[in-house]
Task: inverse folding
């Protein structure tokens, strides 16, 4: 075992660089792989010049272009006369389902009504719905029956309307204003994904920061610097942000010679941007990334050339359970009793 440029190398076949999210587990032994194999700068690619299409004045070509323009006009007419009319009818239907569901919710006979609807679906249509299913879900299921994809889209729209306390009369205009049923579903799904994505992004940045801090602590490449350090860390609530790194800016003057420009403490916020950039080739999957950081801690803890205090610190950290676990794939429940 040896240290090279701060990254501990072991006799393990490194995983391929820049794997896709789906492939990050494949061929990787999470308990032994070396995360430094991922920490390589991306290769520079030369953009290929795009070719230029030249339109021909050939009469035969013009004939097809003219026919295409006529088809476009026909498509426009279809969009206005058929598609838009169908959309309006759908929005009215959803408003009616929404109104009906809200009336059931507010009825003193709510439970009896829903019980009879569930009984009708089970006896006459072989569709089973759980007794605790909300009225709006039940009515969407009752109207759409077997088409689960369509039911899910409609339910998303009506659920959003319910959260925003819309009245049924305003629903058609609301759906049209937001771009239709599919657009509402896409926007709501994107908002949910963004919330999860923001959290994952912060946790990934934290793991990347921890990795580079460990690389620095274990590095054998050290030097003394007697110059001034420029501190750019911002003050928050009377306290200055702590910096984990000192960023040295130098000019390459030729060969292996560099001349120092400045030494800089940027503060946590700017450091986060920096470590995200230099760590962009590290795994995206939090489980893989956390295992890589943990493996580095194991290697440092067993490296007798490291200070005893650092090795003990790593042993203490290794006793802390992993936060991110590998997600098991679970098949979707396709039974009629599954929620929409």
Result:
């Amino acid at each position: 075992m040896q240290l090279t440029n701060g990254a501990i190398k072991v006799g393990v076949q490194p995983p391929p660089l820049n794997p896709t999210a789906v492939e990050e587990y494949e061929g990787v032994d999470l308990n032994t792989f070396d995360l430094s194999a991922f920490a390589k700068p991306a290769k520079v690619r030369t953009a290929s010049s795009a070719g230029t299409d030249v339109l021909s004045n050939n009469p035969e070509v013009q004939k097809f272009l003219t026919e295409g323009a006529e088809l476009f006009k026909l498509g426009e007419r279809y969009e206005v006369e058929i598609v838009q009319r169908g959309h309006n009818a759908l929005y009215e239907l959803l408003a009616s389902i929404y109104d009906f569901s809200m009336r059931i919710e507010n009825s003193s006979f709510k439970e009896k009504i829903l019980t009879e609807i569930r009984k009708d679906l089970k006896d006459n249509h072989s569709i089973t719905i759980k007794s605790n299913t909300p009225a709006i879900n039940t009515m969407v299921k009752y109207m759409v029956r077997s088409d689960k994809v369509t039911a899910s889209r409609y339910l998303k729209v009506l659920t959003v309307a319910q959260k925003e306390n819309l009245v049924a009369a305003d629903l058609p205009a609301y759906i049209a204003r937001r771009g239709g049923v599919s657009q509402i579903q896409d926007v709501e799904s994107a908002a949910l994904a963004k919330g999860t994505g923001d959290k994952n992004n912060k946790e990934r940045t934290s793991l990347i920061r921890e990795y580079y801090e460990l690389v620095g602590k274990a590095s054998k490449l050290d030097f003394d610097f007697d110059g001034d350090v420029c501190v750019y860390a911002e003050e928050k609530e009377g306290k200055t942000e702590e910096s984990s790194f000192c960023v040295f800016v130098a000019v390459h003057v030729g060969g292996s010679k560099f001349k120092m420009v400045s030494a800089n403490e940027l503060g946590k916020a700017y450091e986060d941007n920096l470590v995200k950039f230099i760590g962009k080739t590290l795994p995206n999957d939090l489980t893989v990334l956390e295992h890589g950081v943990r493996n580095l801690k194991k290697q440092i803890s067993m490296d007798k050339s490291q200070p005893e205090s650092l090795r003990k610190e790593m042993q203490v950290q290794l006793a802390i359970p992993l936060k991110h676990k590998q997600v098991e794939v679970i098949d979707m429940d396709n039974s009629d009793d599954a929620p929409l």
